[in-house]
Model the fold of this input.
Amino acid sequence: MPKAHPPLGNTEFSLVHFTLRMREKTLLTPQMLLGMRNGLKKAARRLDAETDQGRLELIDPAIPFDPWSSQVRKKPAPPFAFIPPGLVSRELGPEEPMALAFCFWGRGIQQLPLFAGILRELGRQGLEKGVARFDLTGIDAEDATGSSTVIWREKEDFEAMAPPIIPVEWWLENLSLSGPRLTLRFHTPARLISQNKPLFQPGFAEIFPFMLRRVTSILKHYCDFGQEVDGRHLVELAAELTPVRHSLSWQDWKNVGGQGPGAVGGVVGDLEVEGAGLRELLWIIALGSLLNIGKGAAFGAGNYTLEAPAAVGALPR
Done:
């Protein structure tokens, strides 16, 4: 499928893998991982109380202050997205390693040392109320070819990290997708709210605007992306695609982040569409797979991968 996208300039990201070593026997659940936000905020507050370096604002950015603007200012998303691993509960033994992947964007890449410190502190307190404690033992990052590079090991200085940078244009031009048909596979609940109501069975036309806002807001806020995007035209193209298969269903995930039963829910499953308009929409859809969509996207909710019938496999990670 030939790619069509506006000039993306110096927009870039880093795909970073954190290696953890469990301190005790742990039943690690997908819900526990998706509930990391509260634990990361608590860890950031604790570290900021010792040396105030704005760690909390990295996890929970403040609304920008502009006394000259008449527009309502919205709180920006964090400059990263958690890319969750396989969605099965795993029992990990003491000293057993596991890896967590995060995608950092633009200026957010410079905040990687602060984030690593927060994650290490989270390991000391545990993922959930003292449970699932771990040590941070290594940090790797992928280069533009997909090869992994070691950027930190235990007892080294976080500030010395220099992660490889992946240019967005290069990544898009090297996607292994072809043909006028595409399958979106949602692995974690995508909680999409429209007019203050959740979408329980959204079609692609309802889902695409969430991708568009997520991608363009991150690129503009953290990557200085100044190119005008004709959002109305893209939304119209999305509405013209033909649905081929729809198996999205609503699921409630229990006890995520200590918020109580049924507090987090969203759609999971497959959505397959086809049409000539995919050529213009692909860059948004593809980048959305590195950012997740909907409520809690930065912390792993609304994660999806892409597949095309004529492709060898899914999008590279």
In short: The radius of gyration is 19 Å. The chain has two domains: 12-167, 172-307. The CA atoms of residues 203 and 246 lie 8 Å apart.
